[in-house]
Amino acid sequence: MTNNKYVLGWIDEMAAMTKPDKIVWIDGSEEQAEALRAEACSTGEMIKLNQELLPNCYLHRTAVNDVARVEGRTFICTSKKEDAGNINNWMAPEECYAKLSKLYAGSMKGRTMYVIPYSMSIVGSPFAKYGIELTDSIYVVLNMLIMTRVGLDVLEALGESGDFIKGLHARADIDEENRYICHFPEDNTIWSVNSGYGGNVLLGKKCFALRIASYLGRKEGWMAEHMLILGVEYPNGDTKYICAAFPSACGKTNLAMLIPPKFLSDKGYKVWCVGDDIAWLRVGEDGRLWAVNPENGFFGVAPGTNLNSNPNALYTTMKDTIFTNVVHNKANNTVWWEGLDKNPPADAIDWKGNVWDYTKYNKADKSTCGAHPNSRFTAKATNCPCLSAEFNNPQGVPVSAIVFGGRRAKTAPLVYQSTSWQNGAFVGSIMASETTAAAAGAVGVVRRDPMAMRPFVGYDMGDYWAHWLKMGTMIPKAPKIFHVNWFRTDADGNFIWPGFGDNMRVLLWILDRCEGKVDANITPIGYVPNAEDINIEGLDGVTLDTIKELLTVDTASWLDDVQNIKEFYAQVGERVPQAMYDELAALEARLNASK
Ligand code: OXD
Ligand code: MN
To answer: Which of 176, 191, 554, 594 is most deeply buried (CB count within 10 A of its CB)?
Structure first.
């Protein structure tokens, strides 16, 4: 397959440790993929679904103890602890290699090691980075075939170079006590063991495209961010691009595939999805910031996806999709999940593989769900009805606006604009979400999740902020930076803003600001719209007064937040850039002055 001595030497070394019976190279062909699907079905690893209703779709169940990313068992292994920082778990590289080598030893005996050459972004693009994942799981191979660009052209593009990310994954015993997701950014290496869950084992995604890539981006002068990318097409055919970062459960996939309200689509407005999870950003020769989605598919959360919340996602999953941990509807051999529709199947198997009685389902008790709350679909980007025509453009798309967002019941207004790149980076650094009454635990507890990257920065968080500040000096025509909050509630805890497709109204204000087409009010936190400038045409129950309420800046709750931010900055530690402290002090002073 290749004569690359770095590739071959490394595979020999890993095989000597894990001792597979066989080594199989994945070539990206449909014939090989089909043979692997058949093999996975013959062993029960996957179930072939109704091929008339869901062509080329399969169902997989993970082990019951293995259903999500495990932040507590995720490590950044830099030689110096302080380079991993206080927010990450750290282990010394030699200690980690030694510990995990024992877990890998002989773990592939009786099994096959698959060699997956893959590219994040289009092979040959200035953004592209190559990886090879070694795994003993067919499920991983089939997911990687959807999520990344796999094939022999990657080996050709790599040539004789040793510049690739070495990923090793072994299922081992799926033992949660010995589950490790470890990153060695100084060695371009990822080791994952004892898991079979996507976020821990599809090494191109969080491990490479965020943790290792953020480290490389700092070294090489670019950025790897936990951001969706969407294009807003105007009736005259112009398209403007927005990147947006939200913590989990804040609707990133929904925003990326938004359907505009009817009065806007009637006029010719459209939204195009470039990506729903990860953006790689580089400064272009024209001085603008350009973005690609390095992935080739969507690994989306199934529950809650339906014809109202996200029809585009639902259509995307109707062929060529692997469903993980959803309900199996035995009557017609299809799938179901909570929030899909109001017709739970009567003859059903739950995500654990047990008979599921939907009449026992109680919304407040997650253990009665048929689908795991983090059940997923792995679906091809090219099956998405609103996929951008620029998705495969190796140069990416020019970014007009960066949007941060969180789930805040009171503090953050519907939208505000930062006053500069530095102030925008500060707004990103203080991003947060609050727990709601819907989740177990205290209401209103704030979790700070800077740039939605808390679990994904492959080095010290303070250094990451410094990199953001430095990038600002390298982009002559930098995007404007905004913050949105779709989740403000009234006195009874009801959401005030309708969200979903109506978020388009806010995106249009954001893009108007980028073009200098609309004025705004300066407040202590930044620029807030004039209520009249958020278009409420056709919105039921939302008046100008509602918008005014959504745009208020409550000084007292912001001053409380400032105290919480100070605690968080102290936790991030010594490497928080002085500029961030200056921004924080200036914010506090402006809030006090406005009392
Ligand atoms: C996540 C995901 O956990 O995208 O952020 O799966
Ligand atoms: Mn994500």
So the answer is: 191
91 shares its domain with 232 = no
Question: What lines the ligand 1 site, CB under 6 Å?
Answer: 69, 199, 248, 277, 299
Distance CA(230)–CA(403), nearest Å, equals 11
CATH code of the domain covering residue 480: 3.90.228.20
CATH of residue 306: 2.170.8.10
Tell me how far the alpha carbon of residue 297 lies from the centroid of ligand 1, in angstroms.
13
pLDDT digits (tens, 9 = 90+) for 537-574: 999 999 999 999 999 999 999 999 999 999 999 999 99
- 199 alpha carbon to ligand 1 midpoint, in Å? 7
Burial class (CB in 10 A: 0-12, 13-18, 19+), 547: buried
Range of the domain at 343: 298-383
Query: Cα(73)–Cα(234) distance, rounded to whole angstroms?
Result: 45
Q: What are the Cα distances from residue 148, in Å, to 70, 101, 291, 294? A: 22, 27, 17, 8
Among all ligands shown, which has an atom nearest to the Cα of 299? 1
219: tokens are: 């070294």
DSSP 505: H
For atom 6 of ligand 1, the residue with the nearest CA is: 199
Number of domains in the chain: 3
Going from the first residue of the chain to its last (595 residues), give the mean pLDDT of each consecutive group of 10, the final group possibly shorter.
96 98 98 98 98 98 95 97 98 98 98 98 96 98 98 97 98 98 98 97 98 98 98 98 91 95 98 98 98 98 94 98 98 97 97 96 89 96 98 98 94 97 98 68 79 97 98 98 95 93 98 98 98 96 96 96 97 98 98 96
Please indicate, yes or no, whether residues 240 and 139 belong to a single structural domain of this protein.
no
Mutate to test the pocket of ligand 1, among 208, 277, 324 (most ligand atoms within 8 A of CB): 277
Known catalytic residues are 250
φ and ψ at 523, to 5 degrees?
-130, 175
Q: Hey, what are 512's tokens?
A: 């108007």
Three-state DSSP at 149 gives strand
In angstroms, the CA 467 to CA 447 distance is 22
Alpha-carbon distance values, 276 to 204, 205, 305, 381, 391 (Å): 15, 12, 14, 10, 12
